[in-house]
Amino acid sequence: xxxxxxxxxxxxxxxxxxxxxxxxxxxxxxxxxxxxxxxxxxxxxxxxxxxxxxxxxxxxxxxxxxxxxxxxxxxxxxxxxxxxxxxxxxxxxxxxxxxxxxxxxxxxxxxxxxxxxxxxxxxxxxxxxxxxxxxxxxxxxxxxxxxxxxxxxxxxxxxxxxxxxxxxxxxxxxxxxxxxxxxxxxxxxxxxxxxxxxxxxxxxxxxxxxxxxxxxxxxxxxxxxxxxxxxxxxxxxxxxxxxxxxxxxxxxxxxxxxxxxxxxxxxxxxxxxxxxxxxxxxxxxxxxxxxxxxxxxxxxxxxxxxxxxxxxxxxxxxxxxxxxxxxxxxxxxxxxxxxxxxxxxxx
Length: 347
Known about the structure:
Shape: globular
CATH superfamily: Rhodopsin 7-helix transmembrane proteins
CATH class: Mainly Alpha
CATH topology: Rhopdopsin 7-helix transmembrane proteins
CATH architecture: Up-down Bundle
Number of helices: 14
Number of strands: 5
Distance between the termini: 65 Å
Structural class: mainly alpha
Radius of gyration: 23 Å
């Protein structure tokens, strides 16, 4: 159906990575496992940070926010793909597709800005350690996250409004596992130069600027580390940045190659590269932040210890709930922001 010079599309077809029936069970099992690991891993990070008082610091506050973003980021795309595989349907409504694209870009950009904020946190901790508590105070940390939440809506909202004005050709087959920006532009019969202009201007500014800020921060950090006299001090300073550097490398490794190029050069094979930052990176982030961090490993061991798992606290009314369940419910009842502010105010 047409309306004026626009083709009205009611739904798109998400073809996924493969249409072969013999591959569907493997893909379903693979992405379900990745999604479960992502959600459970990041939830454990959030619970470990919120339940451990000595982790109520700016660095772990930002890590907890990044874990929330990773959960939301994968929840926008993977559940819909799993549902399509299970029901043998590939359709997604037009409105649902635009909403998926909006939240995908939103959480992608939010993670980008949070990585820049975390780089600034490491810069202050290493280059200005005596003023760290004063600069990275609770109010300032919450302001940074709040500003990130606000400004990250600009780019996806712009693209969603522009996408809603485009006309589409007869084919509505998207060779992707979700409604990705360039995959949608590839189907359009309209002039997409304005869309590409937004990518190269607003998109470059909002995505490349945090990357340049991270690069500049680490240039200053490495310069400060090299000036340290003790090898042990150098190693300790670098270890506080190694996890963040690994996450940054994983995040930007595929992001620029997929987005910062003309949409006309988009190929089906790029959907595989997109999966790396859409599913693999959020799954690996909890491991990166926990395996090389003694405090985080200690908090996770305390959260998952068998003693706490099966211990029943003694109360006047008799045995209570298992220790881990009670601790988890207690953690959920407490606001993380309140704990964070209270702990830092004591420093």
